[in-house]
Amino acid sequence: MKCSCNWRRIVALSLLVGFLSSCSLNPNARKQKYFESGQRYFEKGHYREAVIEFANAVQVDPSFADAHLQLGDTYLKLQQPDRAYQELADVVQLRPGDYQTRIAMTHLLIVGRRFSQAQEQTAILLQQRPNDPAVHSLISSLLAEQGNLQGAIAEMQKTIALAPGQWPAYLSLALLQWANLQPAAAEANVEKVIALDPKAAQPRVLLGAYYEAQHRFSEAERQIRDAMALDANSMEPRAALAKLLLVEGEKDAAESVLVQATQDLPNDPESLLDLSNFYFVTGDLNKAVAAYDALYRKHPNDLQIEKKYIQLLIQAQRYDAARTLDNEILKTSPNDGDALLFRSQIQISQGDTNDAIQTLQAVIKNAPENSQAHYALGVAFEKQRDLVRAESEWQETLRLNPNSVDAERSIADAAMEQGDMHTLQSAAAQMIKLQPGAPEGYALRAMSSINLKQYDNAEEDIRKAIEIAPQSAFGYVQLGNLRLQQNRFDQAIQAYQDALDRNVSSIDALRGLVSAYIAEKQVDKAIAVADAQIAKSPANGSFYNLLGAVLFHGKRDLNAAETALQKSTELDQHDSDAWIQLCEVRAAKGTIDDAIATDKQALKANPGEPGLYVLLGNLYESRSDWKNAANAYQSALAINSRNPIASNDLARTMLYTGGNLDVALSLVQTARVELPDSPAVFDTMGWVYYQKGAYALALNCLQEALRLQQSKQMPDNPDLHYHLGMAYEKTKQIGLARENLEQVLKIDPAYRNAGQIRQELLGLKS
């Protein structure tokens, strides 16, 4: 009996082991185990771990639609919309009748601006459910993103007709009408929302924003405070109230509202986010970073918060901290597009433009339609002074995303730098179209009008910019620029001061204020206002840069200028303009070796800045060190082969080192394409032709160089007169040859070829 009992236990145990073993091998049990584990991770906010579990479930059973759906939702939490879309697409393929998932998938297509695919999906949905208000709402979103506001409004009206009691549709309709410049209709629909749901807070916030835009501030505040009373736990009305108070000039009250929100809503990440944004907008970057750091520490596993924190750290020039966080993301997800973009921004900010270009080209190779990567690549090319390729990338950005204000702004900035006011005007007009409620587009268009002497148009745009955002410096800066152009100096000074009162860190405002005092020949006052503003914003390297420029060029106080510019480079070692000015000051003091050492120090911090190599070449040239000068120019061209200044200077240097004249001619011809009105380029080209024995061509180029120099009212250049004198001699125009060679010695009696010139003059016979 004992043996029989043991046998039964052994048999039972074997059966149990066999059952457990069969469970572990059963695909249905395994996939369910992974799925449930993923759900637990998801509910705790551990999205990276959840991805692994849901992916395991899908691997066990590729037809497990629920796992695909959960995996898609998790990718959305991780800010990976492309992967989320693929999972939702798999669900739709597995369950063609799952219209809710098809709607969610189509939303991702719209957000990703894949409009043709989105249209295919909306056509299917419309065929399946022609009377579903959600389908018409989706079509409205698609049309709105495509810029067809009238069509979007019509579809949203169909949505309301199919479900007249749903207030969110009226709210969406109001937002569309607002964007379509139909404020009265928008107001009526917001009031309809309030009537349908008197306890809803969001419509009152929107109505408050409408009243704010109309400068009906008391009505706006009443609506927003009513919203706060209706939903005391929502951050949205508190943020709206802070914004309204800031518009009304009550900065301290606005800050108090947001600080109180962080205390009342400690678990709402938006409270710290809005406080950080407030400090950022008002120019206090240290407090902005501190607020966001507190937010990040509360939510260390929230990838969206981590990414926004990296963006803020980059803007605050805290690159080491930004790089550390970014590397954490890339360690887990090496192909994360956002993290790679952040890496490129850090590389660009630190002068590593070649590395940034490689990073961005890798992103674009994996995702050719990534408009942000194309935009950033344009910025990298712009840093290398390759504006042709930069603008090409920004145009590609606009092709992929016609609503990119950043791309339009960059095109506008490039146009400003090149003095192309018509392109600036066009880009600014597009910015206004994209953001009619933002002041920047109007301010930039005003700038173009000022330069085109269209003062009435400028006045109108400035008034609009100030009306839209009276708390912003944008409008006041352009008002100062207009008054300065009109020689109304007192009014210009007041406008620039008004701008600085609104943004203590505005370099444009301080530059304008300094320019106004210099225009009145009050250099000491210009220096005083720069010093005063530095006291208010002591960590602003651009202010020290400006002060150094005034001390250098306006006061000719080389020691004080050197001190200011040294401080500027300490505050921002990636400000290449400050480094260049510092080198120029030290060269002006006669310490060329110090200037060269400073330039090399600047290049360590900014290895991708071609302007520093060009300056280094110029410094070597001043010592007649042609070999090192040529090496410096070649380094600049290695960064940007189209750099016209480096091309011209290398060509000129080759004439002193016995270089190939055909190569020199090719270089200077490249420079001429980019700088068609440069006297220096025509001078070099003329001297190359002279060395080649083409004296008639040489003389034509040199005469054009002199004409351009005189038309630009530039200082007389002894090199140009020397070259002209020699060319006139070769073409048997003895009187003009003598005149130009004598002019060289008048300009610079110690000219490097003075002995040769005197010998030439002795040999010339009139």
Mean pLDDT: 87
Shape, principal axes of CA atoms: globular
CATH topology of the domain at 677-766: Serine Threonine Protein Phosphatase 5, Tetratricopeptide repeat
Number of strands: 0
> What does the main sheet amount to?
none
The unreliable regions are 1-24
CATH hierarchy class name of the domain at 677-766: Mainly Alpha
Q: Oligomeric state of the chains?
A: single chain
Helix amount: over 70%
SS element count, helices: 44
- Please state the structural category: mainly alpha
Considering the protein shown, what is the CATH homologous superfamily of the domain at 677-766?
Tetratricopeptide repeat domain
CATH architecture of the domain at 677-766: Alpha Horseshoe
Using only CA atoms, what is the Rg? 33 Å
Distance between the termini: 142 Å
What percentage of the residues does DSSP assign to strands (E)? under 5%
